[in-house]
Design a protein that fits this description.
The structure holds 2 protein chains of 2 kinds. By secondary structure, chain A is α+β, with helices and mostly antiparallel strands. Chain A has 4 helices and 10 strands, in the order H-E-H-E-E-E-E-E-E-E-E-E-H-H. The longest helix of chain A is centred in the first third of the chain and has 35 residues. By secondary structure, chain B is mostly helical. In chain B, helix 6 runs parallel beside helix 9, helix 8 crosses helix 14 and helix 12 packs parallel to helix 15. Classes of the chains: A alpha+beta, B mainly alpha.
């Protein structure tokens, strides 16, 4: 094992696991990009207002949009859609609201995570404005209407006549009182996840319980 | 191949003087850097863990003997299913293969020892500590891990305080197997005897060479995945937490990117063992040596692009499901090549049926049964029905127990006379084989039926219509478990005494060759220095 060739071999052999450990972590951004392209996991699209104006509304077609609300573990919020469903034309922008109330006598920072099903429809479900783009702050017992503006792209496959939009509201534990969207807000087509990933979130309670 | 001449090149360092034996005293086993000692340590450790993991399996089967909850509470049952898998995979099958590699690889390639002997000592001695850490969680408040060996979040993050212990022990096990694998590759690449070209290497060496590459490629990915779990649980990251923008399904992708190559890590060395044993007892050279090497390499390559067949039901685009379905079914081609080559090796051979051959034949037949149920599971629409049922349990136990474990047992009986210098008791070995084979089928075959009928896995209770098949499986489990005591008896007897074995041990090795048979039985403490020349 004293030859230089053997030393090089062994060094290369130690390099492989080091690189593969990095590759494990590289799979995280790869997965996000993959989901964004395919619309997997109901990750929805976001478009700018100008693009919506260029879309041609398809008045001959009606699609049902259903609204749902879920709560993350122990999130102290009353949260639900103002209307359960809407009939919409693809290519036309609509607005609806969700109602949220902080049930706790203390300030609350929260984040809503959207999901669209069927997942095939998610890339066609575009939002121009959404409370899920930023973290939402509530004062003690504050209630507020949270608007969503969306447009369904006219290219939505013909066999889809119902699209369900679901939000899950999570408490951001130890939340940043000011939304950290200075960088994220800059480029428009960003989803909240990329910068929220390393923000301190609601991972604590499971440990605190015992 | 492997025509051996006694002439030698005198070009090796003789660090320790020439041919001395082991150091006296028990401390020898702690400080040893000898490949044979370390191989022995690995194999004994593996046997000990086999009985511990087996005891866990018997607790599971005892609870499932009848519907309803009788013996253990559901939380403990879940700990047993989780720990049984972790112990059997990381504590039994992998260390047993590394132990066989340590003992045999240097002798098969004509090397004096492993390439990195001190690291070899370290990679073994990490193991007992890793398992002490892992098994200790069973005695802690809240118990051991109970979310299944796959540690899927969010469930695994919601368990007790065992999580960090399990993660650290997985890190240690990973470090141990990566070091073991690097040592094996370095030995094969650098220490082959003059004239031993790659395509002259015995097939056990080839399959381990490929397995070692799989190990260094995927064990770090598992280390990364469990590190993400650790930081999610304790350092506020959200890799798998939807609230922070993460995704629990991503864990499954990362895990199975490790997990699928891992299942080939658990079977490829067994392919190598069977490819050594069948030619010896058929008294014919292996049929299709070159195709065996290429088939093994293709299986290893394909193992990296099929991982999502473990998770067809999570929601995937149709294209993805088709891709993973077809690549998975493609693996049947190189595997079929291997099975047909084994059968062709036996064709018109002068076969005898000593215990290693019986276990090897049992491997070929019953591994193939597991392979076929794997093909059924590979079909996406069918997998939606079978997913997480006992059919899956039946499938992977067929490839792992009468597959990997039978392969290991065959290898142990095959080389035991070489290691100890004494033949084992052949009658006892045959009893061990027949009891194991009857009971293993009694144990796992009924699981196919209850699985197809819809019985879910990892559940301590079940609907009454599954009762009869479960009772049969439990009888099989206890029979199989207690039959393994015969293995322990056979090994101990062979160490203590018995008919003397010659250097070539089996008469068939005269035809199949192999450098390890040119040494005495037992071989000298430091073999092959100077190295032999292969023509």
């Amino acid at each position: 094992m004293k030859t230089p060739r053997a030393r090089r071999n062994i060094f290369a052999l130690f390099l492989i696991p080091a690189l593969m450990f990095g590759f494990g972590y590289l799979m995280v951004p790869i997965y996000d990009i993959f989901c964004e392209i395919t619309g997997l996991n109901g990750k929805t699209g976001r478009v700018e207002l100008v693009e919506v104006k260029r879309m041609r509304p398809d008045e001959s077609r009606l699609v049902t949009v259903e609204f749902m609300a879920n709560l993350g573990r122990d999130a102290p919020i009353d949260f639900g859609p103002a209307q359960a469903s809407m009939q919409v034309h693809p290519g036309k922008a609509y607005q609806t609201v969700y109602r949220a109330r902080n049930t706790r006598a203390a300030a609350l920072v929260s984040q809503a995570v959207p999901s669209v099903s069927p997942s095939r429809a998610s890339t066609y479900f575009n939002k121009t404005e959404c409370f899920c783009f930023t973290q939402q702050e509530f004062t003690a017992h504050e209630s507020r209407d949270l608007p969503v503006r969306f447009v369904i792209h006219p290219d939505l496959p013909d066999d889809i006549d119902t699209v369900t939009l679901a939000y899950t509201f999570f408490e951001v534990a130890g939340g940043d009182p000011t939304p950290d969207l200075q960088h994220g807000g800059g480029h428009g087509a960003k989803q909240p996840k990329s910068h929220a990933r390393l923000v301190q979130v609601n991972a604590g309670p499971a440990r605190a319980n015992h | 191949m492997n025509a051996y001449t006694g002439t030698a090149d005198e070009h090796l360092d003789h660090d320790h003087g020439d041919h001395h034996g082991p150091a006296p005293g028990y401390l020898r086993w702690v400080t040893t850097t000898n490949h044979k000692d370390i191989g022995t340590l690995y194999l004994w450790f593996s046997l000990l863990m086999f009985f511990i993991g087996g005891a866990m399996a018997l607790i599971i089967r005892a609870e499932l003997f009848q519907p309803g909850l009788q013996i253990v509470d559901p939380h403990f049952f879940n700990q047993m299913t989780t720990m049984h898998a972790l112990v059997m995979i990381f504590g039994v099958v992998m260390p047993a293969f590394v132990g066989l590699a340590n003992w045999m690889l240097p002798m098969m390639v004509g090397a004096p020892d492993m390439a990195l002997p001190r690291m070899n000592n370290w990679s073994f001695w990490i193991l007992p500590f890793a398992f002490a850490l892992m098994l200790a969680t069973l005695f802690m408040e809240g118990g051991g891990p109970a979310a299944g060996w796959t540690l899927y979040p969010p469930l695994s993050l919601q368990g007790g305080d065992s999580l960090p212990f399990v993660i650290f022990s997985i890190h240690m096990l990973g470090a141990s197997s990566i070091m073991g694998a690097i040592n094996i590759i370095a030995t094969i690449m650098n220490l082959r005897a003059p004239g031993m070209t790659y395509m002259k290497m015995p097939l056990f060496v080839w399959t381990w060479f490929i397995t070692a590459y799989l190990l260094i490629a995927v064990m770090p990915v598992l280390a990364g995945a469990v590190t993400m779990l650790l930081t999610d649980a304790f350092f506020g990251t959200s890799f798998f937490n939807a609230a922070g923008g993460g995704d629990p399904v991503m864990f499954q992708h990362i895990f199975w990117f490790f997990g699928h190559p891992e299942v080939y890590i658990l079977i490829l060395p067994a392919f190598g063992l069977v490819s050594e044993i069948i030619p010896t007892f058929s008294r014919k050279p292996l049929f299709g040596y070159t195709s065996m090497v290429y088939a093994t390499s293709s299986i290893a390559f394909l193992s990296f692009i099929v991982w999502a067949h473990h998770m067809f039901t999570v929601g995937m685009p149709l294209v993805g499901e088709l891709f993973f379905m077809f690549t998975t079914m493609l693996i049947a081609v190189p595997t079929g090549v291997k099975v047909f080559n084994w059968v062709s090796t036996m064709w018109r051979g002068a076969m005898t049926f000593e215990t290693p051959m019986l276990f090897a034949l049992g491997f070929v037949v019953m591994f193939t049964i597991g392979g076929f149920s794997g093909l059924m599971l590979a079909m996406t629409p069918i997998d939606f029905q079978y997913h997480d049922t006992y059919f899956v349990v039946a499938h992977f136990h067929y490839v792992l127990v009468p597959g990997a474990v039978f392969g290991i047992i065959a290898g142990v009986y095959y080389w035991l006379p070489k290691w100890t210098g004494h033949h084992y008791n052949e009658t006892l070995g045959k009893w061990h084989f027949w009891l194991s084979t009857v009971f293993v089928n009694l144990l796992f075959f009924p699981m196919h039926f209850v699985g197809l009928a819809g019985m879910p896995r990892r559940i301590p209770d079940y609907a009454v219509q599954f009762a009869d098949f479960n009772a049969i499986a439990t009888l099989g489990a206890f029979g199989f478990g207690f039959a393994q005591i015969l293995l322990l008896v056979a090994v101990v007897q062979s160490i203590l005494g018995g008919a003397k074995a010659t250097g070539q041990v089996w008469d068939g090795t005269e035809i199949t060759g192999g450098l390890e048979w040119t040494l005495s039985s037992p071989p000298p403490y430091h073999s092959f220095s100077p190295q032999p020349v292969v023509k």
